[in-house]
Predict the structure.
Amino acid sequence: MSATNCSELAPEVPERPAIKVQQTPSDQFNISAILREPDLYLERALDYYRSDRINIAREIVNVVRDAATDRVLLSADGEFLLKLLVAHFELDIGRDPSELVRDLRPVSVLQRLDALELWTRYLQATDRYEASIASLMAAKKLARDVDPTRQSRLNTQLWDLLIGMPSQRLVEMQYQTDDPDLIGWIEIAGLFNDSLSVGAWLASIEDWVDKRPQHESVEWLLSQTQQTSPGPKRIAILLPQSGSDAYAQAARGIRDGWLLAYMVDKGRAKQNTLPEFTFYDTVGKDREQLILDAFEDGADHVVGPLSKDAVNSIQATRTYPGSILMLNAPTTFGSSRPGSVRYLAWTIEDEAFKMAQSLSKRNHVRCVVIYGNEPWMIRARAEFELNIASPTRVISVNRINEFDQLTEDIGATIGIEESERRHEGIESIVQFPLEFQPRMNQEINSIVAFIDSSQLEAVLESLRFHADRPLDIYVTDSAVRGKLTELANGVQFTTDTWRIFNSEFANTVNEYFDSNPNMASFYAMGIDAYRFSNLWSQVKVAKTIAGHGSRYRLEPTGNFRRLPYWGVVRNRTLTPLSDVDHQETRNPYL
C-alpha cells in the first residue's frame, strides 16, 4: 500500500438550603411524594438538571405540570422554579422560551442569580453573544457574594461562550470593555481559538499564566488543563488523491488546508507534541478495509473518507480501535457514538437551516422563496421550508426553470401577474380602459433566494424592474462569490468565518484560491479537520466551538453542524452582520 508520510461573573442573604440530590434512579421516587412536596422536588429537579441528569429533572417537572390544580399547590418559589426549568428545557430543544424568560419574577438574590443564568442562555440562543457574556459576568460578580459554589460552573459557561466566537470578534470585545476580569477571559479564549492542537494550547496557556498569575481564571484554567487529554499521536488521512473527479479536486483543497495547519502548528507547539500523519489514496480501494489497514499500521485516529457513498457504507458497520472524523455526512445517522465517530461536512442544508432559524426569530418577515434547478438549490429550499416557523411566513415558493425568462417569472413570484389579472377583470366589468400601475403583493417584504452568483445580478435587476418598494434579500454564500455590483449592496447572506473575518488563514485562503472560491471552502475545511482531530477530547457534545473556517456545534449524533454567520454586502464588499432580532437586550434581572 502506497502512502505519503509527514511528521512533525448584594447583599448578604442566607444560602439556599443544600439539597441532597438522590443518587437513585427516577423510578425510586413516586408521584405521591412529588405532589406532597412539589417545591422540594422542584429544587431537586434543578440540581438534577445542573448535574446533567436532565431526564430525571424532566420527569419531576412533568409530574408537577400534569397534576390537577387541587392536587398540588406551589408556593411563589415553586412557581419560579417551575418556569425556570421549563424555559431551560425549551432552550435545550431549540424552542423560543422568550415568554417564559420574561415572565420570571425573581424575588431573592439567589433567584436573580438563577434568572441571570437563564437570561445568559437565552441571549446566546438568539446569537447576542456580547450581551450574553455581559449577563454572565454580572452573574459571576453576584455569585461571589451569595453562592461562591457556582463559580466553577459559571466559569465553564463563560468559557463555552467565548470559545464559540471567532478570534476576530474576541479582539473587538477586548477593545470595547474595561473589565480586567473579562479581558483576561477573552485573552485565554483567544489563545484556545488560535490553537490547532493540544500541544499548542498548553504551551500558550503556560506562558499566559506566568504573565497573569493573579487573574481569577487561573485556578479554573489549571484544573482544566490538568484534565486535558493529549491529542492523537498518529493520524491516517483517507482521501482520493489520484483521481480527477470532483471528489479528487475537493480532496486537494482539504489536503492543502491540512498541511497549512500543520506548518502553522509546528511553529507554536512543542515538537514532541505534534502528530505524525499519513495520507492514504482511496481511489479504487475498499474504504472499510482501508480504515482497518490504517489502524493496523499504528494510527490511533482516522480522517475520512470523503464521499457520501463511502460514509453511508461504513458509518454504522462496526466499532473501530480508534476515533474517526469522516469528511461527509451520512444520509441517515446510525448509532450515536460522538466520542469515537464524528462527521465534518460543509452542506448547503447548514446555511438553509441557519437562514430559517434566524428569520423565524425576526418580526414581520413575509417572504417569497425562489430557487433554481441545481440539486443543492432544491435541497436548500426543502431544508428552509422544513425549519421556518411562526411568526415568519412564506407567501409563495417558486422554482425558476429558465433564467432567460427570469423577469417574467419574478413578476409572477411577487404578485405582478395577479395584479394585472385583477385589473383586466375590472376592465371587463366596467367596459372601459382604466389607468393602471401593476402592484406587487403588499404582504411581501423579503426574498429568500437559493441561487448562485451568476444568477444574483439577474434576480436583482428583475426585482428592481418589478418591485414598487425596497425588499430585504437573503441568500446563501454561493450567491455572493465573485464580482459584486452596486445592486447587491444591502443583500444579506449566510457565510463562514474565513469569508468575512480578516485573519492570517483567511488572507492565505483568499490569495491562494482567488480564482476559485469553491475550492477555498475545502481548504478551510482541511484546517478545521486538522484542529478538531487534534483537539478531539476538548470538543463537547451540544457545545459551540469556533473553527478557523467556520463555527460548529457537535450534535449527539456526532455531526459537526456548521453554524454560519450573517454578512451583508456594503460597497460591494462582504461585511459581518450581527445576527440580532432587533429586540432590546436590556437585562431585566439587574
Remarks:
- The longest strand covers residues 393-399.
- The longest helix spans residues 246-266.
